[in-house]
Design a protein that fits this description.
This protein is mainly beta. The protein contains 1 helix and 5 strands.
Length: about 70
């Protein structure tokens, strides 16, 4: 999984499945775009206007729940 934040476009992106072709995109909620592959699996997500929607869009923590 990859996550990136672009301060120029204020977009936070999560790539869940690399090298997967997006065949359908859906704006589930305004400003949240979900991308799906040919099997209907979620492969990526974009959050537009991220600095308004996410606490500290330029900072990320990763944790594995046990």
């Amino acid at each position: 999984m990859k996550a990136s934040y672009d301060p120029k476009t204020d977009t936070l992106s999560f790539i869940l499945k690399e090298n997967s072709q997006v065949v359908e995109s859906d704006e589930d909620k305004p400003g949240v775009i979900l991308d799906y592959d040919e099997r209907g699996d979620l492969v990526s997500m974009e959050i537009l206007d991220a600095s308004r929607r996410v606490t500290e869009a330029q900072k990320m923590e990763f944790q594995i729940a046990r």
